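Task card 7
Instruction: Convert sequence to structure tokens.
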Amino acid sequence: MKTFKAFNDLPIKDKLVLLCTFTTALALVLASAVFITTELVSMRRSMVNDLTGVAETLGSNVKSALIFRDNKSAREVLDTLKAIPSIQCAVLYDGNGAIFTTYWRNSITFSHHAVLPRNHMYHFGMRHLDLYRQIQFDGETVGTLYIRSDMTHFYSRMARYALIFFAVMGVSLLMSYLLLTKLQAAVTRPIFELAALMRTISRDKDYSVRARIHGKDEIGLLAEGFNQMVTNIETRDAELRSYRKNLEELVYERTAQLTTTNTQLQKELAERLRAENALVESEYRYRTIFETTGNANLILDENGMIAMVNTAFEHLSGYKRGEIEGIMTWMEFCPADMLEEVTHYRELRKSSPDVAPKGYEARFMDRDKMTHDVYVSAAVVPGSTLTVASFLDLTELKRLEAQLRQSQKIEAIGQLAGGVAHDFNNILTAIIGYASLLRMKMGDDHPTKAYIDPILASAERATHLTQGLLAFSRKQVMAPKAVDLNDAIRKVERLLVRLMGEDIELKTSYDTRNVTVFADPGQIEQILMNLATNARDSMADGGSFSIATEQVTLDSIACEALGFGKPGMYACITVSDSGKGMDKETMEHIFEPFFTTKEVGRGTGLGLSIVYGIVKQHNGYINARSEPGLGTGFEIYLPLIRPLEEEETAQKPRRIVGGSETLLLAEDDAHSRALIREVLEKFGYTVVEAIDGDDAIEKFINGVDLVSLVILDVIMPKKNGRIVYERIKEIRPEVKALFISGYTADIIHRRGIYEEDIHFLTKPIMPDDLAAKIRDILDSKG
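Output:
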């Protein structure tokens, strides 16, 4: 601003000189810029063409050397670059991207680790031009040539252009300034005379003077017009003096009248201001309350038209005030099924305001046709036909209430699963144990042996159901380890083919990158089996079932988009089918326990609940997507870990060996105790039975030197297994122990049993597993 003000204060002659000089300089700069830019582009193109020609020549000469791996010939070809001073270095890569040979001028050491491009490429740097040229033979790339050229001569030439530009510009500006200094006088002298004349007339009020006319140009016409204006002013000045005298007399009379009127108006104005201030203050209080209550508020007229809304109502409805006030009615925000009820409330407020309810729950439909649960409070404004309504959005509260009910339902199922696990596992131990003993005693050709295998298979399914319930309640004992998801899926792939049937195609896709997670392999297989079973039931007429693994990275934006998860690296299992799919309402309940869309007798409603429990137990996340007629897909995200450096060696088939030692068995369940005793005696052991904790301690004291191993149930009457073991160790510290239990992992942890230095078996127990475990403990050192 100071620069423009200083320019405006300059004389016209200086302005004229400056403007012409600036215009000349600007024209010179633009012309020089266009010339230098054109020359710069031409020089760059010339450098690229020259270097490309050199590269093509070298490529043709080293092609045979690359094919026959003749490093010496290739080096001789590159040494010919000494004749071109601007080339600093050249690197020849073979077809695999490895350096084949190099050339350096003046023993320059230069480290080049560029990623080779797939096509021809050049790149201008600050000091160098880099060129990549592929060398091809019979349509196949056999190598890549990299050349670096110095751009010193390029910048020298540009410096000469700049020097010439500044010299020409300086000379031109000097000549322009000298020429304009001489010419400006002819233009500015008449203007100076006219300006001086105007100052004289303005200062002395002498209208008799006239301007001298120098010619018929624009300045001459201006002088002629000035003289005519002075003549007119002189005439008008006489008239104004006469008018002024009359006006002064009239003003005096009117001033007296206005003084009287003004005094009266001031009194009326003061009274009106007091009333307006009171009204403004009242309106301010009302608007502040109306806007800041936190609820969505509106005012309706007697016909239901919305007269006013607050900011919270804009947010709730999705509309702006200008789209609502005086345009829309309250009924336009009501779902169709609530119009009758809302109309009844409105008519009741008109006819019997004392009887009408002050508030009620309703549903509110916003601009996007999304429905909100709201609590409406309405009241008629006293002395008017207007109604004030306030809306409290209950949508989030209702969602949290539903989540609370779901959480309580899941907790109840978890408590139920933990409560029945112990008794159910004792029953399964007896079923599996006695059936296994019966199968051992039968020959392969025994006619009733065919009935034993279905019994064991059914018991095994019951075991999986129990484990599934425990996984759902997060009380299952896991044996996690590093698991490659690709290997885990391949192991269960054949079983899935048999499970799905011939009319369903199984497709698998494996990520070649790391997809190793820390998980229980059995529970990963159970996830796949449950999802495959659901997919099979949704494809009654056949279809396809796909399993894919992928390594993914979830950042904060991805987690926000998914609605779950923490940023980090994950292994993702994507399971999808081409079945009939599910609608949105069904999708909201798929992970609820006992929820099923199958007919009676076809499902328990626990499959997806168990999957959800297992995923959460592994600190993972699961996302489901489905649409009617478009199939269903699940994405399971499990935290990624580093893969094992060595594959675990396959376990050799174990050979079960018995023994002749004396074992103390403490088990409060009579059936389990009888079965375990019979199994151990079959393998040659002597078994001493105890029915509770006190009985176990007493039996051990009586045979303290004979007992080699104590088998203790974790939870027993009078004293639990841990207390019994600590008492026995006080009597004989070196005695060994094996703990067994059918209770859930959290109960076992509270008893201090599930530790690395403790031997433990979970019910139901297979006879072979029990015998093998006892032999391993007895033969172990320490």
